[in-house]
Amino acid sequence: MATTATVEVAAEPKYWHLRTVLVQAIESEFTTGQTLPNERDLSARFGVARATLRQALEQLELEGRLHRRRGAGTVVAGPRVDITIGTHDEGWPGVEPGDRDLVDGTTAAVPGRLAAQLGVRPRAMVHRVRRRQLSMRQPVGIECLYVPRAVVPRVPELLGDNRRAALVLRHLRNNTLEGLTRSVEVGVAEPEEARLLERPPGTAVLVVTTAYTAGGRTAALAVATYRADTCRLAFGEDAPIGARSAS
Amino acid sequence: MATTATVEVAAEPKYWHLRTVLVQAIESEFTTGQTLPNERDLSARFGVARATLRQALEQLELEGRLHRRRGAGTVVAGPRVDITIGTHDEGWPGVEPGDRDLVDGTTAAVPGRLAAQLGVRPRAMVHRVRRRQLSMRQPVGIECLYVPRAVVPRVPELLGDNRRAALVLRHLRNNTLEGLTRSVEVGVAEPEEARLLERPPGTAVLVVTTAYTAGGRTAALAVATYRADTCRLAFGEDAPIGARSAS
DNA sequence: GAGTGGTCTAGACCACATA
DNA sequence: ATGTGGTCTAGACCACTCA
């Protein structure tokens, strides 16, 4: 029994200790927007392999404390962007604060996984309107609205994206949306989505799925994916929780 | 200009292609709960390094398609657990479906980052009640309630965790909660939290922060962290979206 | 073109679960 | 005791940004 009374029963992994050290450094010696030393220098300074350092950086990015851009560098992040998630039909038919970007508007067969949620046959035709949300010139989310063609039938196939999207949205606005069901979960960005969000494929995203009901059926389904590193979802009518409330 | 007309401008990373192959394999050749071959075999089979395979597996786990347990193996996951997030004071004062586990009940100085959100002085004393949510014997979330001692002063310091927690909750239930503000974001689990969730440190979690207001002030703050891989947050009164609605 | 983060490799050892 | 996933290393090359 030569067990020395080491209090260090923890034995936390190296990447976690590294993360803690980096958090302290970020909070005490750096300010928002400031660039950190590059990964090779940092790993050398801390005496760890670059992969281990990267594991810590990845977690800090997921927490929204850092932003990394290939070729550019790693900078200290500011507070997360608040994405307001309304209790009502907010978001789609209306106009909201913040810049938005029309990506495209198409009509095609419903993606297999969404047929059940939309309440349509597996290969039914649906309109899809996709737009991108920006915040301070940075892309933060992709919002995708699916509307069964049965709900909005009169959209000529030949129109351009902009006109088609406008038609679908106007039609929907005239509908009386009665209620909605919503869920939030974590997903990963597919390559195209990732490109629009200016992130590598597989980046963690918050997926907000909203089913709009009208006339006892699902009239539309919105699937919004927000960058998990930069976004916080804010619910309720009041102002977001901790934001700028320090007197 | 010897540019051959290669359509393959994509050049997606290897881990993403691997992910796609694995998704197809999981969906076609495996069923929920089934164990996959181990990582060394899989990486050999696909002709990649183990680290590359693990990058794909990590994403699949984050998506909730796989569960990995050290020493045990990698199994195909079932559908995510729906965590109901009510519009009212649901969750804390009341009782809800699903098993819960009291972790501890303490009274200590408020954690620095929460003082502003609770509307108390930086080193003010707060009661903390912490419990764990289980689903089918698996831990899925840690729910932590902070109540300023100014709101519930009459809790003897000497009581055991169970009694203290019960007192705080009963006191809070007698209060008239007037409203709440809520946000959802992604975070990483600290080692202790991670242990309770049976995951490695740094695991991605969904952080739900709810501020309860009563009498024009913040009476309580609930910080709930749910395993991002196994949980989906369901909002609204209706049943969750796609769940079991296929007739 | 220099410097950055992103991808990928081929190993090694450790902590844990299970039988 | 065996086998699993978890951690860590020391390299290499690629894709991208920016001066």
TrEMBL record, chains A, B:
Keywords, ordered alphabetically: DNA-binding, Transcription, Transcription regulation
Transmembrane segments: none
DNA-binding recorded as keyword: yes
InterPro entries found in the cross-reference section: Bact_HTH_transcr_reg, Chorismate_lyase_/UTRA_dom_sf, Tscrpt_reg_HTH_GntR, UTRA, WH-like_DNA-bd_sf, WH_DNA-bd_sf
Transcription regulation listed as a keyword: yes
Annotated CDD domains: WHTH_GntR
SMART domains per the UniProt record, alphabetical: HTH_GNTR (SM00345), UTRA (SM00866)
Domain HTH gntR-type: 12-79
The name this protein goes by in its record: GntR family transcriptional regulator
